[in-house]
Amino acid sequence: MNILFLCTGNSCRSQMAEGWAKTLKSGEFTAWSAGVETHGLNPLAVRVMAEAGVDISGQTSKLVTDLPVDTEFDYVVTVCGHANENCPYFPAKTRVVHIGFDDPPSLALSMTDEEEILAVYRRVRDEIKAFVEGLPGSLETEAS
To answer: Can 12 be counted among the known catalytic residues?
Structure first.
């Protein structure tokens, strides 16, 4: 089974989801992430994932069109509203499911305290982890 986590810029939430999936669920399915745009890998996402023991520093920000052409996805999970609204077309067998998570960079935009900023990233990281722990079964419920 192949699952694609799709976000706007493939810099934070979708990268976290891919990292968690590869760490927690590698024997159950193959995880990918991409964006409808590319914004580069968010260094604070890398940092908070490393705190949790997951190294995403080698992942790259990419578009759906950058993924191998022959990859067929069983599920596309949009992790933000913009990606859900601008989700590219996938073959009929692909089930698109929207599971929205807050955007840490947007929430932290007006913050200046590093610990406060990191707390936002950690909260979203942990919410994504909880979602990934329920995969793939939780997708069946959401897609119904």
So the answer is: no
